[in-house]
Design goal:
heterodimer, A: 476 residues, alpha+beta, Uridine Diphospho-n-acetylenolpyruvylglucosamine Reductase, domain 2, Uridine Diphospho-n-acetylenolpyruvylglucosamine Reductase, domain 3, Alpha-Beta Plaits, 4 domains, seven-stranded antiparallel sheet, five-stranded antiparallel sheet, 17 helices, 18 strands, 35% helix, B: 176 residues, two-stranded antiparallel sheet, 28% helix, 19% strand, globular, binds flavin-adenine dinucleotide
C-alpha cells in the first residue's frame, strides 16, 4: 500500500490532498523561483492527526516537509522529491492567554499578528514582528527564528518563547522550556527549519505596550553618512526600538507606492523609532536628533497617524520594489554594523558587474542586509546571474565577519553559502545533531545543512572572521 | 593522565590555545566593540574583569551572574536562559580535539543549528568552551535580574537526547 493509501485510509476525508491541481499552492514557499510537486499534502485538524501522519511517514520512510504559512524566503517549506507536505495552517487556535504572567499558549498555525491582536485588550503584544506578520505562522517563526523591525531592542523569536511542545518523527512528545536545567534544547529548536521535529504548541512571552513610540525619519546626501549615523546612535548608548535604512532606489519605490513623504532627493533614509515612557522617549529623541544633525532632511512623528505613515513606506518597500522589476531576489546576510557603508559600496560595484539593479532596504540596527536583486526570469541567464550575484554578497558577508543568513534561514537556497561560513567538521556536527533527532533523515532532508561532498565539489573555502582560505580542508 | 592532559594530547594546536589544566589562565578580552554591543572573551576570564572593561564604556553583561569571581566559562557551562539570550557565538574544542566555531559576533545569525546556545548549561560535559561572544547593553537599559528558576526534566526521552548529543560532541567520552 502506498503512503497516500495509508494516509487516506486512516485520516478523515478532506485532510489528505492529492492531485496536481489541489497540491499546486504547496509547490513552493515565498522563494517562488524553485518549485516541486509533493506526493500529497496533509492538513491535520488536531495534534492526533499530526502524530498519525508522522508515524505513517516514518513507517513507509516517506520524507515529511512541515509547512506553516509558506512565506519562508529560503525554500524551507518547499517540497522535496516524493515527500508529504504536513501543513499546519488549520491548527490556528489561541489556547489560552495569561495576562498577569504575560504568556499565551498558541497552536503552531496561528498567524504572528493574530497573537498581538488577541492580547491587545490587555495592553500587551507579541514583540517579534517580521514584515510578513499578517501571514506567517508562529510555528514557522520558531522554525526560522524569525526577526523583525523591533529585534534590536526586543530580541528575536528565540528571546520571546517561553516553551514549546514538539513531536519527534516517532510521534513522541517533547516539552522544552526556558526553565530546563541542562542543554539548551529550546534554543536549538529555534531556527531548526523543520529538520528536528514538528512544533505543535508554543507558549509565547508577551510585552506591555510602551506608553509612547515616536519615529524619526532622516534623509542623507550620502549612503556612508546614513550608515555611520547608525553606529553613532548605538555608540551614544541609545537602543532604538527600530533602526531601518533604505537606499535611493528603495526610497523611490516605497514613495511611489505609499506616498508617505519620503525625501526623493536623498541618497539614503534612516527610520529610527524610540519607545518607552514619555520622558525617556523625549530625552532620546533630543539626543538622537543631535547625532543626526548631518542629515539633509529630518522629520519626527507627532502622533500615531504620522508614525504609522512613516513606517508604511518601509513596510511596503518589498512589494514596491516588486513593481520596478518582474522578479527580485532577496538576500539576508548580516555583518558587523561598522562595515555597513563598505558593504553597501561593494554591493553597488557588484550591481554594475552583474548588470542587475539592487534596492537596499534593511534592518540597519542589527547589521542585517536585505539587498533586493532585480531580474527578469523570462530573460535567458538572468536567474543564474542573480544567483551568482547573491552568492557573492553572502561570501562578502562572511568575509566581513558576519553570517549568510540573519533571519530567513538556509533552506535550499543558501546551501552553497554555508560552505563558506563553516568548515567540514562544523558541518558534520550539524549533521550529527540531526541524526540524534531524526536517524532516518525523514524531516525536511537535504535542507539547511549542505552535504559535505557538496562543499568539497564546490571548492568553496570556509572563511572565518575575515581570515581567508585554510589549506587544510579535506576533499571528498 | 588528567582529563585535560588527555585532551591536550589529542588537541592539534594545543600550544596555540595555551590550554592550561585550570583553563583560568586562558583569559582575557579578545575583541570588544562598544558601538557593536559585542564582546568576545576567553572562557577563563573572571567575570568581574569583563564587567570592569565594559563599565569603561558604560555597558554591562545583561544577565544574572551567580558569582562575579567565577570565570565566564563556568557561568556559561552552568548557565540558564538569561545568559543564553545574550550569547552570540562560541569557540569550542570538542572531544576529538577539534577547534570549532559556532555563531559569531553579529546580532542575527540563523546559519546552522544554534550550537552556541545549545551548549549553555552543558556543564563542561560536551566540549571545552574556549571563547564566547556576548551581546552587551548600555547600563541605562539594564534592569534588575532575578536568579533564574530551573527545573529538571528527567523524562526518558530527554535523557536519551542529552546522552546522544553528548556523543555528537564527545564520542570518546573524554569529558566526564
Ligand atoms: C514579504 C515578506 C517579508 C518577510 N519579512 C521577514 C522579516 O522581516 N523577518 C523574518 O525573519 N522573516 C521574514 N520573512 C520570511 C518568513 O515570513 C519567515 O521566515 C516566517 O517565519 C516563515 O513562517 P511560515 O509560517 O510562513 O513558515 P513556512 O514558510 O511555511 O516554513 C518555514 C520553515 O519552517 C518549517 N516549519 C514551519 N512550521 C513548522 C512547525 N510547526 N514545526 C516545525 N517546522 C516548521 C518549515 O519546514 C520550513 O523549513 C518575510 C517573508 C515575506 C514573503
Amino acid at each position: 500500500m502506498s503512503i497516500i493509501q495509508h494516509l487516506t485510509r486512516v485520516l478523515p476525508k478532506g485532510i489528505v490532498i492529492t492531485g496536481n491541481e489541489s497540491t499546486r499552492p504547496y509547490e513552493c514557499d515565498g522563494l517562488s523561483m524553485y518549485k516541486k510537486k509533493p506526493l500529497a499534502v496533509v492538513l491535520p485538524e488536531n495534534i492526533g492527526q499530526v502524530r498519525i501522519a508522522l508515524r505513517l511517514c516514518r513507517k513507509l520512510k516517506t520524507p515529511v516537509v512541515t509547512r506553516g504559512a509558506g512565506t519562508g524566503l529560503s525554500g524551507g517549506a518547499q517540497p522535496i522529491d516524493q515527500c508529504v507536505v504536513l501543513g499546519l495552517s488549520k491548527l490556528n487556535r489561541i489556547k489560552s492567554i495569561d495576562a498577569d504572567n504575560k504568556l499565551a499558549v498558541v497552536e503552531p498555525g496561528v498567524r504572528n499578528i493574530a497573537i498581538s491582536e488577541a492580547v491587545s485588550k490587555y495592553g500587551l503584544y507579541y514583540a517579534p514582528d517580521p514584515s510578513s506578520q499578517i501571514a506567517c505562522s508562529i510555528g514557522g517563526n520558531v522554525a526560522e527564528n524569525a526577526g523583525g523591525v523591533h529585534c534590536l531592542k526586543y530580541g528575536l523569536t528565540v528571546h520571546n518563547i517561553e516553551s514549546i511542545k514538539l513531536l519527534t518523527i516517532n510521534g513522541d512528545e517533547l516539552l522544552l522550556s526556558r526553565k530546563d536545567d541542562g542543554l539548551g534544547l529550546l534554543a536549538l529548536m529555534n531556527g531548526s527549519e523543520g529538520l528536528l521535529g514538528v512544533i505543535i504548541e508554543i507558549t509565547v512571552k508577551l510585552k506591555t505596550k510602551p506608553d509612547l513610540a515616536r519615529v524619526i525619519m532622516a534623509g542623507f546626501d550620502s549612503v556612508r553618512g546614513c550608515a555611520n549615523s547608525v553606529a553613532d546612535i548605538i555608540k551614544a548608548g541609545i537602543i532604538p526600538a527600530g533602526l531601518e535604512m533604505m537606499d535611493k532606489i528603495a526610497i523611490e519605490a516605497a514613495e511611489g507606492f505609499a506616498q508617505v513623504g519620503y525625501p526623493l532627493d536623498a541618497e539614503a533614509l534612516l527610520l529610527c523609532e524610540l519607545d518607552g515612557s514619555k520622558s525617556d522617549v523625549e530625552a532620546e529623541i533630543d539626543a538622537t536628533m543631535k547625532i543626526l544633525s548631518g542629515a539633509s532632511t529630518i522629520k519626527v512623528s507627532n502622533n500615531e497617524n504620522e508614525r504609522m505613515a512613516l513606517w508604511k513606506g518601509r513596510k511596503s518597500a518589498f512589494p514596491a520594489v516588486g513593481r520596478l522589476s518582474p522578479d527580485y531576489y532577496c538576500m539576508d546576510g548580516t555583518i558587523p554594523r561598522r562595515n555597513l557603508a563598505d558593504m553597501l559600496e561593494k554591493i553597488n560595484d557588484l550591481s554594475n558587474k552583474y548588470k542587475l539593479r539592487v534596492a537596499n532596504v534593511f534592518h540597519a540596527g542589527d547589521g542585517n542586509l536585505h539587498p533586493l536583486i532585480m531580474y527578469d526570469a523570462n530573460l535567458d541567464g538572468e536567474i543564474q546571474r542573480a544567483e551568482e550575484f547573491g552568492n557573492e554578497i553572502l561570501k562578502l558577508s562572511v568575509e566581513m565577519g558576519g553570517s549568510v543568513t540573519g533571519e530567513h534561514g538556509v533552506g535550499i537556497e543558501k546551501l552553497d553559502a554555508m560552505c563558506h561560513q563553516f568548515n567540514l567538521k562544523e558541518l558534520e556536527v550539524f549533521h550529527k545533531i540531526k541524526e540524534v533527532f531524526d536517524p532516518d533523515s525523514l524531516l525536511n532532508p537535504g535542507k539547511a545543512v549542505p552535504e559535505l561532498h557538496r562543499c568539497a565539489e564546490l571548492g568553496a573555502m570556509h572563511v572565518h572572521k575575515g581570515v581567508l582560505p585554510h589549506p587544510e580542508l579535506e576533499r571528498f | 593522565m588528567s582529563r585535560l592532559g588527555q585532551l591536550q594530547s589529542i588537541v592539534k594546536d594545543a600550544d596555540e590555545l595555551h590550554i592550561s589544566a585550570e583553563m583560568v589562565n586562558y583569559s582575557g578580552v579578545i575583541e570588544y566593540y562598544p558601538e557593536e554591543l559585542v564582546i568576545t572573551v576567553k572562557s577563563g576570564t573572571v567575570i568581574s574583569e569583563i564587567q570592569r572593561v565594559l563599565s569603561e564604556n558604560g555597558q554591562s553583561l545583561p544577565f544574572y551572574i551567580s558569582n562575579k569571581n567565577d570565570t565566564i566559562g563556568k557561568e556559561y557551562a552552568n548557565g540558564g536562559q538569561g545568559l543564553s539570550d545574550f550569547v552570540l557565538g562560541v569557540q569550542i574544542i570538542d572531544g576529538n580535539g577539534d577547534l570549532l566555531n559556532f555563531g559569531g559576533q553579529v546580532m542575527k545569525n540563523v546559519a546552522g543549528y544554534d550550537v552556541s546556545r545549545l551548549l549553555v548549561g552543558s556543564k563542561g560535559k560536551l566540549a571545552i568552551i574556549t571563547q564566547i561572544s556576548f551581546k552587551v547593553l548600555p547600563d541605562s537599559y539594564i534592569g534588575e535580574f532575578n536568579q533564574p528558576i530551573k527545573s529538571s526534566d528527567q523524562s526518558t526521552i530527554r535523557l536519551q537526547i542529552e546522552k546522544k548529543l553528548k556523543e555528537v560532541f564527545d564520542p570518546r567520552g573524554v569529558f566526564i
